[in-house]
Amino acid sequence: MYCMVLYFALYLQSETKINVMKSEKTTVQMRRGVLELCVLSIISDKEVYTSDIIEAMKDAELIVVEGTVYPLLSRLKKEGILNYKWEESTSGPPRKYYSLSDEGKEMLNRLTQTWTELTNSVTKLVKKQSNEKDGKY
Fold first, then answer.
1. Measured between alpha carbons, how far is 38 from 63 in angstroms, rounded to an integer?
2. Model confidence over 96-107: pLDDT tens digits?
3. Which domains are present in the chain?
4. What is the pLDDT of residue 35?
5. In terms of pTM, does the model score above 0.70?
6. Mind giving me the DSSP string for 31-44?
7. SS3 104
8. Which string of DSSP letters, residue by residue, matches 2-24?
9. pLDDT tens track for 46-56
10. Which residues make Cβ contacts (< 8 Å) with residue 44, sequence separation at least 6?
């Protein structure tokens, strides 16, 4: 009997770990999905350097590393979404500053609209489920 209880406890523990890992994986995928929108939003205000993007994300509690941002910026540049220009730096090598192209501005508008619609829909569903659990309708 003791072995069965121990086995069941270990089973529940492993299932919990698996579910936590799945949840963390989903969270990472969700964050990646909105990264492009966030980066374009940051760049929309003014020309920015990569560290400006990382700092703005950090301020918004969306922690990203250079190894994530640089490939995204490179891809967006190749797709014509971003422009960049080199500027001399007083402390080190020249810096690449990014800005939105006209196509980038259009893309940001489309992504923002999609994000607004999506968050409204998800909020409705989550709120509905929460209210049903609490007995509110």
1. 12
2. 999 999 999 999
3. 32-116 (1.10.10.10)
4. 92
5. yes
6. HHHHHHHHHHHHHH
7. helix
8. HHHHHHHHHHHHHHHHHHHHHHH
9. 999 999 999 99
10. 100, 105, 108
